[in-house]
Fold this sequence. Notes:
- Its cofactor is heme.
- Keywords: Heme, Iron, Metal-binding, Monooxygenase, Oxidoreductase.
- One of its GO terms (molecular function) is iron ion binding.
- With 492 residues, this protein is α/β, with parallel strands linked by helices.
- The protein has 2 domains: 1-37; 94-370 and 388-491, CATH 1.10.630.10.
- Helices cover 53% and strands 8% of the residues.
- The protein contains 20 helices and 9 strands.
- It has helices spanning 2-34, 51-62, 66-77, 96-105, 115-123, 132-142, 148-151, 154-166, 177-194, 208-221, 223-229, 239-262, 283-288, 294-325, 327-338, 347-352, 354-363, 395-398, 402-405, 442-459, and strands at 40-41, 80-85, 88-93, 175-176, 390-393, 460-465, 473-475, 479-481, 486-491.
- A hairpin with a 2-residue loop joins strand 2 and strand 3 (88-93).
- Protoporphyrin IX containing FE (HEM) binds next to helix 14 and helix 20.
Amino acid sequence: MGDKIYTLAILLAILFLAKQIISYIKEARFKRQHGCKPEAKIPQWERFIGYDMYKIQVEASKSKTLLETAKWRYDTYGLTWSIVVAGRGFINTIETENIKTVLSVNFKEYGLGGRLVAFGPLLGRGIFTTDGAQWEHSRSLVRPNFTRSQVADLDTFETHIQKLIAKVPTDGSTVDLQKLFFQLTLDSATQFLFGESVSSLTSTEGSVQEQFGKMFDLAQNRLLRRTRLAKLVWLYKDKDFDIACKVVHEFVDNIINKALEKADPIDAEKSIDGTGEPERYIFLTEMLKATRDPIQLRDELLNILLAGRDTTASLLSHTFHVLARRPDIWNKLKAEIDELNGEKPDYDTLRDLKYLKYLLNECNSPPLPLLPRGGGPNGVSPVFVPKGTLVAYSTYVMHRRKDIYGADAEEFRPERWAPEEGLRPGWAYLPFNGGPRICVGQQFALTEAGYTIVRMVQQFAGMENRDPTEWVENLALTLSSGHGVKVAMVPR
Ligand code: HEM
């Protein structure tokens, strides 16, 4: 018996070794054929576990300097380099050809990594969490619901913005606009998706709506930690996260069940509140035409809520953070918006506001983590990407490349987007991602952000900065300001 086990163990070892050798030979042949050269490597004690880098990353996260650390590495080691952190190999790049390859040319060869494992308990399987055929199916269900007419419901935005304006003090006291923007985008996104807003700007403490908002935030804030744990996430017990997911699901299921009861599959146009009145566009009602599976409905709605809510709030917060410190930009923007004579803008008017567009372009770089170049001493040869390696790119650093954006790349200068300056960054400007997985909510976000800015500028004569500190990062799934946006608004 002992002999048999021994022989079996030896056989298995030989088999394992043979597999390794074959894959090594295949890799070597592939590299030779394609002229791959090794990429730059960040010096590490060992590149097996990468504990030194893990510690450095944790420290940078604590001191809120992750973005600057990444920038320093790109400045020091070039546009493409590799690193091992907590047992995982990463190739980091801000080489546009590489990013285009991953997101578009060789799109099918790359996946989302462990997103489904980390996000699954909250979001299930939807457009934001799946790959391959399942993602294609989700995308085909979701995408048609983002056409121009459906995202431009400015009357609905107006209702929410008025609630926000009502919460801004006019007696010169300080307000944190960032907090209000996160409430605003939660309210407008839930209205658009569910047909019922959670009205966090006005909801009372202890209401189911308020509870939903709180629990969604809590669950979402744990997703980054879960992503970092990767395959080991099942070892990590997080009771608060489990409870939050349950509360969020119950809230959404309740809305979906009501919609399923009311909406006749043949005539899903009818309102879900049963009045039969023609209604505003509701994403859920449209989805009911394509599927009546309650789990799929819940998953897609939550996937979009997660993808669309913080991102837009972050964009608004970045913009007002800058505006509070740059009266020159505020005045230029105000001059453009004053030409509307206080009228509410419609969709086309919004699109025609050129300076607003440049401003949003300049603000829009909240990085979301995710190769033909990068190898050899000059970084121009192809780089081999071993299976399982994570390819990451930093839009924060890429959007500050001096060779693309000019010597003043680090300055905040909306004018760089004026056509006469000739800036055409192509794949070097990716706030909304690129390729088949490009953001479906881009128009929704730009319309909401643009409309909010116009209405705020029409309402207030100016703003005073009430935060003497420098901007610091608050890097979760999206990027916002670590100290909020503390200002006083000056009434007109
Ligand atoms: C300023 C605001 C926004 C920014 C900067 C932004 C950016 C992005 C980026 C970078 C991605 C790719 C993420 C990845 O796969 O890692 C993405 C995907 C996505 N976004 Fe947005 N987004 C914004 C607003 C919105 C809004 C308002 C919605 C919906 C209402 C939305 C819905 C989605 C969806 C559903 C995806 C997944 C698409 C797919 O994988 O096929 N986004 N967005």
